[in-house]
Amino acid sequence: MTGTIVRRLLSMLPVMAIVAVCVFLLLHLAPGDPAAIIAGDNVTAENIALIRAKLGLDQPVWKQFLVWVWALLHGDLGSSMFWGDPVISLIAQRAAPTLSLAFTTLVVAVTLAIGMGVLAAARVGTWVDRVVMGISVTGFSVPVFVVGYGLVFIFAHQLHWLPVQGYRPLSEGFLPWLRNLTLPSIALGLAYVALIARITRTTMLEVLAEDYMRTARAKGVAVAPMLLKHALKNAAVPIATVVGNGVALLIGGVVITETVFNIPGIGRLVVDAIARRDYPIIQGVIMVFSGVYVFVNLLVDLSYTLFDPRVRG
Amino acid sequence: MKTTRRSIMAGGLALAGTAAAPGILQAQARPPASRTVRAVLHGDIPTYDPIWTTANMSAYHGGMIYDTLFGVDANDVPQPQMVGKYGVSDDKKTWTFELRDGLKWHDGTDVTTADIIPSIRRWAARDGAGQLLMQRVKDISAKDAKTFTIALNEPFGLILYALGKTVTPGGFMMRKREAEIDPMQKIDKIVGSGPFVFNEGETKPGNQYVYDKNMAYVPRAEPASGIAGGKIVKLDRVIYMNMPDAQTAVSAVQAGEIDFYETPPVDMLDQFKDDPDVVVETLNNLGNVGWIRLNFLHPPFDNVKIRQAMLYLAKQADMLRPTFGDGKNWRECGSLFACGSAMENDANEGWFKGGQNIEKAKALLKEGGYDGREIVLLQATNIAYMMNAATVLAQEMRQAGFKVRLEPMDWSQVVQRRASKAKPEEGGWNIFITSAGGGGMGNPFTNSGMGANGEKGWFGWPSDAKHEELRQAWINADTVEQRKAIAAQIQENAWNFVPHLYFGQWVQPAIHRKNVTGWLHVAEIIPFWNVQKT
User: A46: which chain B residues are within 8 Å (Cβ-Cβ)?
Assistant: First the structure.
């Protein structure tokens, strides 16, 4: 087991290296000039050139790349070209809102979606199944920002139950924290619910058609234990895979959700940095997001050993 | 020790309490909501150094924490701010300034001339008006800790205006330590002497910027007017919130979660007509002027006839209406200087008064020998007014016979591309759309784009010797009346050689909660002194 983990961790290194090269080249070959943005509107081309030189942007791309990689290898993601703050501290400042949002979204989505998927599979062909699938199709089709504005209009504007925007840290209390995350979590989670519910239903239907399930039914096992203890556990591997792959969906959704609900998370940090071409922040955040994505997939792979004894062997 | 459910719960609560304690203590130290204003302004603060950048949001930040030697009042007349007594010699070549009593940096040290002199030099290195001043400066020297002189080679009637203008970069005074940093590099410490202190601990770059009342600040005795007069802070804290989504910001004002929003989309303003808690108010009466900048370096706009054709084909109302709706918040303007400013005049406005004339434009194109070459029009698609104006302009140009290629991109790419002097077909450009604050366009002096000094000047690089002579004459004039007369001559000449053209002038109403009052009407920045929350 330990050997597997070490091998998988080592296999992350080439992936991260490829990500680093791609991110750097994409950013530096794309048009846009941070020096021109820093200088503002009321300047001359000469002033922009001077600022570019001070920022080191007049150096060849390969040289800038080596400087960045060397710093990266020393654990230094660089500093914002605009504010001067270290990227790592900016990410740390923004991590709590994003992690909170991702956590609440995952909890809401996985709990709801698996329940809905199991229910739809158990009642396949009935109105329950059709309603669940209807919700899934709708959840996956409607963009996050549309759901977000709709929720704000109903629950913040009309009913005044929840705030329009913002984030309250957990240190200010559990309820304020939860109040501010409820609408964004629902908005972000809907697409995720749809994805997981559909795969749960499909996999459950496959498992329910297996001989051992028929045998279980014939032996008089009650419906609930049969579905949850026998069927769901055997359907868990594909579900866990989708949950893991869905992290990419979650990361993309976080960017939009944080903008709509004004949550000061990492998604907002990178969107604003892209608009300004603040290269160190963009590079740093994408490296962190990539690392998280690869790591989550590693965890998913490891989770197979819990669900399927054959994998352990 | 036996582990029970109760002991686990007690441990969990203790852990949660420990984790929450710093936040609770911090929350207790925060000023109450009734003494805090949360404001969403037009963008994010790109950098904390308002000299290093000319970005407006950095000037807003600068206006909170730094003070200026002079400040223009509501009538655009410079009044002393950090300066107490001042005077000029009979030959108008030596100015003497004495700092007023009670000026202290936020670190508690006294403001002295050792700080002020390098601050003037650093600001002047980056500011157009400052550079004009420095061209005339023979020496700046300290007489003592509170008194300094500026000796000039020739009189410079606009010296006080230059030191007190609101147009970015403003003449913000910094400590000697920061003032001596290369003006092409940003400062690393944010210590001002202004009415607010920057709270770095609670600031989260890109999200919120926190300014606390400077308890040691001694305001002037005069009433606040423009950015002059007493900067009396009536709040404990101001928080700039960066909220890029307009719909979210508008909803947050309606819900009372924020107090002020500088740039609500005009098509959302009608919903506040019946809202008793929200007030729509225009704080910058001169607003903004839309610019259509032409590239003088390459054909066809190196030809005056082709530039004149542009005057006749561009219809301002058509370019403004898609973004700003009905005519409540915009106007057409034929003056080279912002309409509503002291220098506005109607010299040589025949093209404007006659309205759009496509046939005349076609005739000028023929006269100018337009060869049908493609015009590259840079279109910033992430800024609505720029995108709409470019779309309409391209169509009007096509009607007149131009072949136009719109190049969609974001504003960041436009600011990079416009600096290129390459041929349009080799990565350069022919036209870009932008805007400038009406405050800076009330004269030919503060806005770099008002010059016509060729390749040393602003993007587009118009060149006209007579224009430059007249600008110098305007700068050297003694009275407002003389300046008005010269401004008319500048305009007469400008609409002949056409340095650029405009697509109208608009104001941007702000919205704020009804219980937040005392807003000062100032061009270019939003002061938060004098504002109170009841």
Answer: 456
Question: What does residue B267 show for φ and ψ, rounded to 5 degrees?
Answer: -75, -5
Residue with tokens 């979660």: B257
In the structure encoding, which two tokens stand for residue B348, read together?
């040589």
Q: What is the pTM of this model?
A: 0.84
Bridge partners of B260, per DSSP, are B39, B512
What is the tens place of the pLDDT at every residue in B103-155?
A: 999 999 999 999 999 999 999 998 888 988 999 999 999 999 999 999 999 99
To the nearest 10 degrees (0 to 180), the angle between helices B384-400 and B304-313 is 110
Question: Is the C-alpha dihedral spanning B54, B57, B58, B64 positive or negative?
Answer: positive
Helix, strand, coil percentages (3-state) for chain A, rounded to 5, are 80, 0, 20
- Residues from chain B that touch A163, judged by Cβ atoms under 8 A, are 255, 257
What would be the CATH architecture of the domain defined by B288-506? Answer: Roll (3.10)
Question: CA B100, B101, B107, B112: dihedral to nearest 10 degrees?
Answer: 50
The Cα A196–Cα A136 span in angstroms is 9
- In the stretch 95-154 of chain A, residues with CB closer than 8 A to chain B read 149, 152
- What lies within 8 Å, CB to CB, of A115 at 6+ separation is none
In whole angstroms, give the CA distance from residue B419 to residue A218.
79
**Interacting residues of B205 by C-beta distance below 8 A, sequence separation 6+:** A80, A83, A85, A90, A93, B45
pLDDT in tens, B297-330: 999 999 999 999 999 999 999 999 999 888 889 9
Q: What would the pLDDT profile of B80-100 be if each residue is shown by its tens digit?
A: 999 999 999 999 999 999 999
Q: What pLDDT sits at residue B6?
A: 53
| Tokens at B391, concatenated | 């779309």
Q: Is B22 close to A164, i.e. CB distance below 8 A?
A: no
CATH superfamily of B39-243+515-533: Periplasmic binding protein-like II (3.40.190.10)
Domain ranges of chain B: 39-243+515-533, 288-506
In the numeric block, the tokens 């307009």 are attached to: B246
Tell me the per-residue pLDDT of B17-35, one tens digit each, with 9 for 90 and over.
444 444 444 544 788 888 9
Using a CB cutoff of 8 Å and minimum separation of 24, what contacts does B384-390 make? B384/B265, B384/B323, B385/B290, B385/B320, B385/B323, B385/B324, B385/B435, B385/B506, B386/B411, B386/B414, B386/B433, B386/B434, B386/B435, B388/B319, B388/B322, B388/B323, B389/B290, B389/B292, B389/B319, B389/B320, B389/B323, B389/B433, B389/B503, B390/B433
Tokens of B287: 């607003």
* Domains of chain A with CATH codes: 96-278 (1.10.3720.10)
- Search chain A and give the residue with CA nearest B206: A269
